[in-house]
Amino acid sequence: MDLDTVKKEYSKRKNNYEKLKEEVKDIIEEELKAANIPYHMVDGRVKELDSLLAKSQRQMIGQESAGIDDIVDICGVRIICLFLSDVEKIGKIIKEKFSIESKDDKVLSKPQEEFGYLSVHYIGKLPSSFCGPRYDEIKNLRFEIQVRTIAMHAWATVSHYVDYKSPHSVPSNLRKDFYSLSALFYLADSHFELFFRNSEETKQIVEHKASSRTGIKSEEINLDTLATYLKQKFPDREHSYSSDEVSVLVEELVTAGYTTIGEMDADLQHSMDAFILDEKKYPPTNLAGEPVKYDDVGVVRTSLRIANKKFLKASEIPRGYYDEYGIFRKYHK
Questions:
Q1: Which of 23, 115, 251, 288 yields a CA-CA distance of 20 to 30 A from 227?
Q2: Taking Cα atoms as reference points, which of 294, 297, 325, 295 lies closest to residue 309?
């Protein structure tokens, strides 16, 4: 196919490839959320004309440039996940939701020193079950999906930025450093995975201890122990919507001198009557200005501001709140 024909076909199909990109992205994001698989980014692009023409010439068939139908990655979607184990999970979703023609697993097929160029590539189409006007113009177009971890993506991005598109293009005097850096990213990927698994195990151990007779009052204050404590201590309260909020509370507790869950719990018990009085007198409000109850983090933060002068100073509160809590000075340590 001559280049002029490729240009005309591209001009006709470009909008359809854009629609296909958005459709594939939407499907992937919806399925990742449904499967509770964390991810950094789902991004897509449609090849620009100059890039398409260059690839068409590189893929010459006989004496002609490759036709637009011979170039399978005009529409591309990239999934950047967090952990190595998620690459396989995402692959299963891709196979279930799309009609996959081929898979190129560069993670398993390439030697370890080429870690920076690792990813898993799929070529496919929308499944035949996708019918109707929404899909008629895009269901026969092919697309590419790449799956890689953040560490893989970071190394590939940096190494490409310094213009070394393949290991053999690296000058021999730089190759030792190049492979050493590649190994560091490989170790980072492996240790992210290990850290994540250990973190999940730690959470399970804390939850088990919390439900046991001994409980977790002797445990140090950290994100896992505090989150578990809050859920157990305040089952009838809204739980904080964000782990960031619990993390901020951890920092405030440590700054105020608390080291164990038990120390914090003792002060909560000490000031609970005063907290109940305070919540009735000065209830928090929602966006509509209506009075509501504190969530679990709010209970702890408000109670400890009443009970502990050090925590009052350690926590971030609007100017003027010191006067409000003046009536509770008898509770302060």
A1: 288
A2: 325
Contact, 231 vs 203, CB < 8 A?
A: no
Q: Which two tokens stand for residue 283?
A: 């209830």
C-alpha 53/C-alpha 60 separation (Å) is 11
Tokens of 26: 């939407």
What does R_g of the chain's alpha carbons equal in angstroms?
A: 28
Domains annotated on the chain, with CATH:
3-175 (3.30.460.10), 216-331 (no CATH)
DSSP, residue by residue, 117-174: G--EEEEEE--TT--STTTTTTTT--EEEEEEEHHHHHHHHHHHHTT--SGGGS-GGG
Half-sphere exposure of 293 (CA within 13 A, CB side): 10
Is the pLDDT at 142 greater than 90? The verdict is: yes
Helix axes 243-255, 296-307, angle to 10 degrees: 10
The residue among 125, 122, 126, 166 whose CA lies nearest residue 146 is 122
Q: Which pLDDT does position 70 carry in this prediction?
A: 83
Tens digits of residue pLDDT in 179-232: 787 778 888 888 998 998 999 999 999 999 999 988 999 999 999 999 999 999
245-260 per-position pLDDT tens digit: 999 999 999 999 999 9
Residue 320 in tokens = 């003027």
Alpha helices in the chain (DSSP H): 3-34, 49-58, 84-97, 106-109, 150-161, 175-211, 223-233, 243-255, 261-281, 296-307, 309-314, 321-324
Structural tokens at position 25: 């992205």
Tokens found for residue 87:
């690459």
- Least confident window among 10-24, 216-230, 234-248: 234-248
User: Contact at 8 Å (CB) between 80 and 150?
Assistant: yes
Share of residues in the chain with pLDDT > 90 (%): 55
Between 32-36, 160-164, 180-184, 219-223, the lowest mean confidence (pLDDT) is in: 160-164
